[in-house]
Amino acid sequence: MASPDESPATRYYSESEVAAHNVYNDAWVSLFGKVLDITPLIAEYLGTRDSILTVPLVRFAGQDITHWFDPKSSQVRTHVDPVSNLTMPYTPHGRFIHVPPNEPSSRWSTNIAVPWWQDEQYIVGNLTKKSRSLRVVNTLTHQTHVFEVCSEETIKDIQRRYVLFNEHAGSYTWKCLGRVLDLHKTLEENGIADESEEMASLGINEQQHLPSLQLYYNDDLSVA
């Protein structure tokens, strides 16, 4: 979740958040650590003679498709066709938008300046390297919420996520074990380590030992 005034460069999304956008009219994918909203791209081609090129994108909406591309060139992977002995795009799930056909075609447009997978207009943020669960306790309302956050997010970013539960998230002082947290630092930078992997190795249920943040009301009605 991100506020409208955030730059895509500072936004982070978890795999589960990307996975939620998995239909033709709400389609996200991730590749090379970036999250792309290709909904308008698909909409542009649906109903046209090239609508079949949207099929692989819709099929893999909500997933990571980095493996479709060469890590060095960031272009579509290629292979040598055994019949023609020519190097061609490798698209085992079907040719998709902006990938040239294997055979010459008058329908193929050669004036594509930037293919969609390199077009920054589709980037909505970054794919987190690791997500973690967090428990937030509102000491005023005595409500507890558990939700997923990204390891790269600052407390301020987490505060914005909490707006889903309380629109006055900015009216609280955020603490952990009685210590006021720095809103501009991540959980790790605030000394709240991610021990999920260690717990998993010990067979401990992470959900029973989540880090807990406490919110203390500041007596104002600012909206985060």
UniProtKB/TrEMBL annotation:
GO cellular component: axoneme
Domain Cytochrome b5 heme-binding, first and last residues per copy: 10-128
CDD domains named among the record's database cross-references: Ubl_ubiquitin_like
Gene source species: Plasmodiophora brassicae
Pfam families on file: Cyt-b5 (PF00173)
Protein origin, superkingdom: Eukaryota
Molecular function terms, GO-annotated: metal ion binding
UniProt keyword Cytoplasm, yes or no: yes
Protein's recorded name: Cytochrome b5 domain-containing protein 1
